Amino acid sequence: MKLRLLFLPFFSVLILLVACHRTQPQAVTTKHENKPQCERPCLLPDTTYPSVAELEFQIDTFDTIHSGVIHDFSDCYANAPGIYTFRGGPRRDAQFCGKITGRPDTVCVDWKFLTDYDRIITKYGQWGGGTGWTGQPLYVCWPDSCMKRFRQESPALKKCFSNKEIIVGSLCGKVYFIDFETGDSSRSPIDVQNNIKGTPSLDPLLNGNLYVGQGIPRQEPFGAATYNLYSHTRTHFQGRDAQAWRQWHAYDASPVRVGDFIFRVGENGTVYKYYSPNGEMLLHSTLRYHSAGRWGSPGVESSMAVYKNYGYITDNHGHIICFNLNTLQPVWHYNNHDDSDASPVIEEEDGIPYLYSGCEIDKQHDSINYSYLVKLDARNGQRVWQQPIPARVVVSNGHKFEGGLFATPLLGRGNCKDLIFYNLCVNLPTIGGEFIALDKHTGKIVYRTHLKWYPWSSPIALMNEKDEMFVFTGDCQGRVYLIDAKTGEIIFCKLMANNFEGSPIIIDNHVVVGSRGQEIYRMSIK
């Protein structure tokens, strides 16, 4: 444990005592669960539920100057001009939503941007270009103050640089910057040196920080980087962590800012909390964990969700874990059967936060297994409902096609406000997927729509003037779909690319999405 004990604040000592002694979690009464533990209104209790006993964990504090207490839990992404992180914000609830008039019936390509193609063959394969999972682009409409500073300071700007910009990490190992209107390169790419599978994150404070995780170790160093877009340089790097409980140092998750802190989770079984009030990255503390009595720490590929002072992660051992953002102390734990890579989604109903998640078919070994879709009370981890969907792993031509949930769920709105939607790889009877609508309150299946291939890409929503909801999504064979969200009817389906493994974003009626080939597309829905 790396500590400077001189001038150590009392609050930091308290955190360290909890981490060092690993005390047994204390059961709490219902009355205590609902009572705020500080004068600031609306925070969730500083408590620990008995389910945490299923974990062994360690909290290390490296920064003894700053207490780690977060003073502002407001959503700093809510009013940001654009889409800055995976699924748009800390609840991972895809609040970005398209606008359409009437009933859409076609999708056409506006422009196509080509990335480089990585032909290097590593022991993990050849990764090519375009985008992989989760591979969501970012979109930013830069304010005038940022535009002025870019023009004064950045050495990377191209002639077509404008205020509407797409930022996307590619499997070829570069971050690209694209003019949203024209599809032209808006500034020189950043060479990250290793392949990017996940979704970068742009700091909502507009301090210039872009957080990028490396996904495949093509060369050293390997880890997670921070780039300053004003200077177009790398300003921070988290390399291989010798203290990690799992030695696989990939970062697919999209970091998130809460107050003065940046939270980044890794596939090395570690939650990193950085103090970053002005853009610098000072490691404050870490949380490392694994199942009690089980050797080996899980990796986190999903992006952490946040609700007030609680953070939520899923991992490849099937854990769904809630922890206190102030202390990193686990609050509750839920075991969801199998590998869970889809990011958890948080929604508030009548003042109560609920978490939606699901699992893959990875560690189950029967001929037919289940993807368990769940709704949990996000305050305490109690299950509200569970819907098991039969699915299986298929091996075809030497390739393994896993079943279950890889795409992040989509909350319904408008005429579908009582529904939640899942893209699922069912592979029954052959390789294929389903778009499934569940009743949010009961978990009952409302409809199941067959997709022609399996989907890893997360669906997005469009709304028309009648408050009717439609869905755009893609599959891993390169098709795009328009679906009537109320009925499940497929309105439009067309093979348009190689493989839409990454997730899309939507601005008005324009979709931006990457393909597993070399292409980044902007499409219009009409």
Main beta-sheet strand count, sense and barrel state: 6 strands, antiparallel
Number of strands: 39
Report the end-to-end length measured between terminal Cα atoms.
57 Å
Oligomer: single chain
Summarize the structure.
With 526 residues, the chain is mainly β. It is built from three helices and 39 strands.
Explain this structure to me?
This protein has 526 residues and is mainly β. It has 3 helices and 39 strands. The strands form 9 sheets. Strands 23, 28, 29, 30, 31 and 32 form a 6-stranded antiparallel beta sheet that branches. A hairpin with a 2-residue loop joins strand 37 and strand 38 (510-514). It is globular and about 60 Å long. It starts with 9 loop residues before the first helix and ends with a strand. Residues 1-39 have low confidence and may be disordered.
Write the layout of secondary structure elements.
Elements: H1 10-21, H2 30-33, E1 55-61, E2 82-83, E3 98-99, E4 107-114, E5 138-141, H3 144-153, E6 164-169, E7 174-179, E8 185-191, E9 201-202, E10 209-213, E11 224-228, E12 233-238, E13 256-258, E14 261-265, E15 270-275, E16 282-291, E17 305-307, E18 310-314, E19 319-324, E20 330-335, E21 345-349, E22 352-357, E23 360-361, E24 369-377, E25 383-391, E26 394-396, E27 399-401, E28 403-405, E29 410-411, E30 419-425, E31 433-439, E32 445-451, E33 460-463, E34 469-474, E35 479-484, E36 490-495, E37 505-507, E38 510-514, E39 519-525
Parallel strand pairs: 3-33
Antiparallel strand pairs: 1-16, 2-5, 4-39, 5-6, 6-7, 7-8, 9-10, 10-11, 11-12, 13-14, 14-15, 15-16, 17-18, 18-19, 19-20, 21-22, 22-24, 23-28, 24-25, 26-27, 28-30, 29-30, 30-31, 31-32, 33-34, 34-35, 35-36, 37-38, 38-39
